[in-house]
Amino acid sequence: MTAAVSPADREQYLALVGDGAQAGAVDFALALAERGVPPRAVLLDLVAPTQARIGDLWARNEWSVAQEHAATHVSEQVVAALAARHRPQTAAGRGVLVTACVDGEWHALPARLFAEIARWDGWDVRFLGASVPGPHLISYLHRHGPDVVAVSCSVPTRLVAAHRVIEAAQAAGIPVLAGGRGFGPAARWGRKLGADRVAAGAGDAVELLRSWLPAIAGSHPLRESFVSDDEHILIAKRNPQLVAAAMDDLSQRFPALRGYTPLQREATEFDLGQIVEFLCAGLFVDDPELFTTFLDWLRIVLATRGVPPSTVDLVLDVYEQQLYDFPRAGAHLAAGRRRQALAASPAGGEGRG
Length: 353
Fold this sequence. Notes:
By secondary structure, the chain is of the alpha/beta class. The protein has helices spanning 7-18, 22-34, 39-59, 65-85, 109-120, 134-144, 159-171, 188-192, 202-212, 231-237, 239-253, 262-285, 288-304, 310-322, 327-344, and strands spanning 96-101, 124-127, 148-152, 176-179, 197-199.
């Protein structure tokens, strides 16, 4: 009977990476594999869910950015150690797979984890790492002619960059597999952007590759309807003006903001800019849920840092006034305000978690 990762194993591993104990975490993961847990399961059932918990701990202000970065580095070393210790015994000859994070996407661990699982499954994997500029990735694809390219996106604000890569790779006749949390639930926005196939997680992606390739030749995307107008572009260009208007409004409503240190002001302006960026991403794929889901997350982040959640409503009001001549943006902002009102109601669970 194959051994499995237990809840106790996950708790112990979280404690190790939380302390930045690289040697201890590596030894622990290798010991699990020696105990009979398949290396693939160590990555999928230990490392991956731990990374999700780390993100949640940061969002709830229980971990600092520094602790999160240190823990992620430890997990990267764990993946590297497992890959070095457990190399494919035989080449299954499935083909050449290039996997890379889109330009501006710095969360490379999910893509690296997938790359190693695919390698164990018999693929000749070329892992290009984080934030690969689109033109450089396309040049690499033209030069090496892989059987498939796996595009990783963990943050929806990089969907425009992902779309460029998908279209360019397909123009070269190379099928595209899209995966990562940035492509949305079940990677549905990857399908909307025209990827040939999408996968919600690394395990699903490897299984999909088995049944999909090399049975087909060339790119045959399962494209869904895709709204493409200029609203997201025009609004992105107005990001600085929108942030300035929101800062001015908040300063009048909350006089304490005027006394913020430069670092505090920078952090506030960053949050305001992110609201605009996620609004633009939602407009790009024509899905208000992208925007409202981000607002749910932002509400948690702000509340745990002592910022009244009502400030989000005020900012949405400012942006709605500023973007009165953008009908789709107005609809997305209205959806965001409805979601915020629901969260603030007793039934919505204001203050819970």
